[in-house]
């Protein structure tokens, strides 16, 4: 009956709700211990030069290997780290892991790619952030030119002079700074005015619609031209289709990153791609959807 169906729907809804909040609760509860036990792992997603299709960089993307929940997405726990202040030790762990990896690659003669690291605003607000970055680079004998930082606008206030100063010092040191998820925030353009940056990462919410939908296509073309006029490099995120790639190439977007070429991979798998060096498009339908 309709009433039964209604009840079933309600039951289904309640159980997803409970499952959702239970998982959130469990993750928040386990986070501190996970940090002590180093239950995290970095995946690497290649960033390609649009013209040569060579891997020029990789974005380090964190996952949590949780005993009960399996591989957990950063979307589900970075906010916990930020809210508890544990993003600072976690951020140090991430940067150390990246630097150790770069050091290992250098010693084994792997290609000299750069690695980009996502940095939360909370990390920038710590007084000795820039100094701690410097000492980690020295500890692992990594040149600053091998590291890039990606900053998302949503959590950073563009007129915060402490952040402007930190970014200036990091760039002076030789670390490139990219503005992540460009176009999704409130003040993307004031960022370009306020900060000296090296590049922008065009958000996938625009990239997804090129060259099919008119408005996003115009926006992407214009943003690329705007960025170039300010001497910024443009990286397109979330490239999933050949048509998107062809369009971005025509528009002189320098680099692309997305499932069309590779998902984020565990380090051994990523090294196999590095060995190959040049990547070919793989339509997403041929890839497993289950992977994070
Ligand atoms: P983000 O920095 O914008 O990273 C790009 C996200 O897009 C990644 O999700 C990546 O897996 C996904 N992606 C890449 N190519 C494609 C594509 O073609 N299609 C689709 N649909 N998605 C694609 P992920 O790894 O789940 O990370 C989500 C967010 O979590 C990141 O967004 C970043 O804001 C945050 N995050 C990840 N790792 C770290 C970290 O080490 N530190 C900090 N502070 N935040 C991190
Ligand atoms: Mg990023
Ligand atoms: Mg981001
Ligand atoms: Mg992004």
How would you describe the overall organization of this protein?
- With 292 residues, the protein is α/β, with parallel strands linked by helices.
- It is built from eleven helices and nine strands.
- The chain has helices spanning 2-36, 78-84, 87-107, 121-124, 129-139, 161-173, 188-194, 204-207, 214-229, 242-250, 267-276; strands spanning 40-49, 55-66, 70-72, 114-119, 147-152, 176-182, 199-202, 233-236, 255-256.
- Strands 1-2-4-5-6-7-8-9 form an eight-stranded mixed beta barrel, surrounded by four helices.
- Strand 5 (147-152), helix 6 and strand 6 (176-182) form a beta-alpha-beta unit.
- Helix 3 (87-107) packs parallel to helix 5.
- Ligand C2E is lined by residues 45, 60-62, 73-75, 78, 94, 118, 120, 150, 152, 180-181, 204, 237-240, 257-259, 264.
Question: TL;DR of this structure?
Answer:
The chain is 47% helix and 18% strand.
Count of alpha/pi helices: 11
The radius of gyration is 20 Å
Taken from the alpha-carbon principal axes, the silhouette is globular
Gap from first CA to last CA: 40 Å
Average predicted confidence as pLDDT: 91
String of helices and strands? HEEEHHEHHEHEHEHHEHEH
Task: Give the helices and strands, then pairings.
Elements: H1 2-36, E1 40-49, E2 55-66, E3 70-72, H2 78-84, H3 87-107, E4 114-119, H4 121-124, H5 129-139, E5 147-152, H6 161-173, E6 176-182, H7 188-194, E7 199-202, H8 204-207, H9 214-229, E8 233-236, H10 242-250, E9 255-256, H11 267-276
Parallel strand pairs: 2-4, 4-5, 5-6, 6-7, 7-8, 8-9
Antiparallel strand pairs: 1-2, 1-9, 2-3
Helix pairs in contact: 3-5
């Amino acid at each position: 009956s309709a009433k039964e169906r209604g009840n079933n729907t309600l039951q289904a809804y309640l159980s997803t709700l409970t499952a959702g909040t239970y998982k959130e609760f469990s993750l928040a509860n386990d986070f501190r211990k996970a940090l002590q036990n180093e239950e995290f792992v970095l995946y690497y997603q290649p960033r390609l030069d649009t013209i040569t299709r060579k891997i020029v960089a990789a974005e380090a993307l964190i996952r949590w290997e949780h005993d009960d929940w399996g591989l957990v997405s950063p979307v589900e726990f970075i906010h916990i780290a930020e809210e508890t202040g544990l993003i600072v030790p976690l951020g140090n762990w991430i940067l150390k892991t990246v630097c150790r990896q770069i050091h290992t690659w250098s010693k084994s003669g792997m290609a000299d790619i750069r690695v980009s690291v996502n940095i939360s605003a909370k990390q920038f607000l710590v007084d000795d952030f820039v100094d701690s970055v410097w000492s980690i680079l020295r500890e692992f004998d990594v040149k600053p030119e091998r590291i890039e930082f990606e900053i998302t606008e949503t959590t950073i206030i563009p007129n915060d002079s402490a952040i402007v100063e930190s970014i200036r010092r990091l760039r002076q040191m030789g670390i490139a700074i990219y503005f992540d998820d460009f176009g999704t925030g409130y003040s993307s353009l004031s960022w370009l005015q306020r900060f000296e940056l090296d590049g922008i990462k065009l958000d996938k919410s625009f990239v997804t619609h090129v060259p099919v939908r008119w408005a996003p296509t115009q926006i992407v073309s214009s943003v690329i031209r705007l960025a170039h006029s300010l001497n910024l490099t443009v990286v397109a995120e979330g490239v999933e289709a050949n048509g998107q790639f062809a369009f971005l190439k025509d528009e002189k977007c320098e680099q692309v990153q997305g499932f069309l070429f590779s998902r984020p991979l565990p380090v051994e798998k990523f090294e196999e791609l590095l060995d190959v060096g040049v990547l070919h498009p793989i339509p997403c339908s041929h890839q497993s959807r289950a992977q994070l």
